[in-house]
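Format notes (please read before filing issues)

Several people have asked whether sequences and structure tokens are stored in separate files. They are not. Every record keeps both together, in the order shown below: the sequence lines, then the token lines. Line labels are part of the format and must not be stripped during preprocessing.
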Amino acid sequence: MSRQTPAFEPTEHPHRRYNPLMDEWVLVSPHRTKRPWQGQVEKLPPEVRPAYDPTCYLCPGNERAGGVRNPEYTSTFVFENDFAALLPDGPRGELDAGSFFHTQAETGVCRVICFSPRHDLTLGEMEQAEIRQVVDVWCEQVVELGSRPEIAYVQLFENRGAMMGASNPHPHGQLWSNYRVPQIPAVEDRQQAAYFAVHGRPLLVDYLAAEVEAGARLVVENASWVALVPFWAVWPFETLVLPRRHVVQMPDLTADERDDILAIINAAARPISRAATSPATIRGGITIEEIGGTIDATCASVSFGSWIATNERTNDPRITIVSGVVAFCSSSTREMVAPATAKRHA
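Then the structure lines:
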């Protein structure tokens, strides 16, 4: 007697899912969430930090590397990174030492954004007016650097916690801006422009409508934003946050939308914090790419946990693209707490 093949069930059987933003497939293995775990599980004691730390190089009035002293700042503070990954005045050029050894010089601007003078507060623990000030600073930085002809890409991000590479516990994020657009956002922009050329509508606007109708992957929503798990999610807790209305640029957000960004971030982060086995090991982002022009190919998107904003321009005057993707990743609990384990499929 031949063995009957069971009917395919995506919640039980391995399968691939298509990511239209990257034009790639990801492998999803939901059955692996049943795998027993006897590996390491981090359990750290709660952090207790003072409101001011005299040894912290980010606190107001303290000395930073090279003898630079912070002002006695009382709100969000931005300064040029003392250990910048990119330098604004570096040379430009390329070296080609054969088919496998191609190098391009890269320039840019890197800054540090101290969210608060308080050493003991995370962004989510700050008062609403203080959080709104941070959001306004994000917008100002994107506008300022995005207007420079030598800058093609601006990224704001936060790595929270020692496990994610944060070198200082003071609540802060970073800003990197590049002469060239990095690979992933460049692919995403091409994909969204191609979708818009065919359908006449932004990809993420249509995607949000489909997810709201399905309802299965919605995490939390408020008056301005919807947080959801992307159908093509790769990381544990990967979350995409989209505006309810079509917003073209980050500075175009209304006062209410700016206030609602952090509200939905905190609402979506709470269940993740309960599920994680160690505190503050999560990385995520706001990703906003802007391409100069007047036609909207996509819509703005925002995430939570840590934030990334990108401003991108091309020479194509016909297309404006604002888009975003976010990842919430707790490396110590990747397969244990994810709804389904997803891996990139080459």
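For reference, the curators noted about this record: The two ends are 37 Å apart (CA to CA). The chain has two domains: 21-43+183-344, 65-178.
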